[in-house]
Amino acid sequence: MKSMICKQVLRSNRFFCTNGVRSRRNAPLSGNEMPRSGGIASMMRLPVQENTDGLDVCFVGVPLDSGTSIKSGTRFGPRQIRQESCAIRSAHYDLGAVPFEDVQVADVGDVSMNIYNLPEAVKQIKAAYDKLISNGCVPLTMGGDHTITYPILQAMKDKHGPVGLILLDAHPDTQDTMLGASIAHGTPFRRAVEYGCLDCTRVVQIGLNGSVNSLDDYKWGLDQGFRVVTAKECWHKSLEPLMAEVRGMMGQGPVYISFDIDALDPSYAPGTGGPEIGGLTTCQALEVLRGAADLNIVGCDVVEVSPPYDMAGTTAMTAANLLFEMLCILPGIKRRH
Ligand SMILES: [Mn+2]
Fold it and tell me: Which keywords appear in this protein's UniProt record, sorted alphabetically (predicted)?
């Protein structure tokens, strides 16, 4: 068994020719070498390694749902996203991107943390990301509930300084406390501002939607200088003009993209703990991500995928594809047409 696994991992290492230099890069295991329904269910059927040595980009899971306020289940998110990712091919036609020829990518597995103690979990996630990104590797994270973005942003700040943020989310996640707790999935961006993680002049929240606790729910972000775009402002529109504005805001500074899957309408992404009707379409999500191409992106996540509520796997499938989109817009990925 062991030798079969080694063989499979080795087979997905390919030689690519870039500028006349022969270099060895990882690539997804091809469906012509192993049926796509088979093989190890790593993210995009990439090789798995324990750390980010030699990597430009890593896929990493954070299987946490202890920060969830109502319907739990996101601890199963990374595993299900990997499962659905096995159908994704290695090139992106619309972007003219073949990311595995340009950067070295692997799946580095999941972060382990104390799922019974959120403040401790936050410290453990921060420490894990400090290590993952110490060599400049860009993490593409599979959540996990939105609590995890706070410690990831702490690590980003310590590495890159305060970052710009493109947040897609039905909820602002800027509450001070939930049931008296300061760490939960409704508080990460308030904590991130307090820690100094964010350049508040370069923060945009896109897709705010649904019922609120109070009419002031979006005010805290506005008071920090965030650009706030509700889902209703996006209805029936292309988001390309918005993204032109966002590119101007972000400039050349470091940018983090956090995608809460509940920003999407439940018709596209039902498998999440706090769905809200009237959300963004998947085409609008693609416009946002493709509109962020060529920004100085230092990390991305897709969070709040909850497989127990994802009966047809659509939500995890969508999340897997969003992560592939994120890979294809990273710095260093060439446009081939
Ligand atoms: Mn959220």
Answer: Hydrolase, Manganese, Metal-binding
Both tokens of 39, joined, read 């093989």
Ligand 1 ion local residues (Cβ < 5 A): 146, 169, 173, 260
pTM (predicted TM-score)? 0.94
Q: What is the pLDDT of residue 124?
A: 98
- What is the β-pairing status of strands 296-303 and 254-260? parallel
d(CA 227, CA 155): 23
53 a known binding residue?
no
CA of 75 to the centre of ligand 1 (A): 15
| 92 assigned to a ligand binding site | no
CA distance 126 to 148: 9
pLDDT > 70: percent of the chain? 93
List of the chain residues with pLDDT < 50: 1-11, 15-22
What is the homologous superfamily of the domain 50-104+113-328 according to CATH?
Ureohydrolase domain (3.40.800.10)
> For residue 24, what pLDDT is reported?
79
The Å distance, Cα 145 to ligand 1 centre, comes to 8
Ligand 1 centroid – CA 331 distance (Å): 26
* Mean of per-residue pLDDT scores for the chain: 94
pLDDT digits (tens, 9 = 90+) for 253-292: 999 999 999 999 999 999 999 999 999 999 999 999 999 9
3-state secondary structure of 14: strand
Cα 297–Cα 30–Cα 3 angle in degrees, nearest 5: 105
Distance 163 CA to ligand 1 centre (A): 18
Report domain extents, the chain.
50-104+113-328
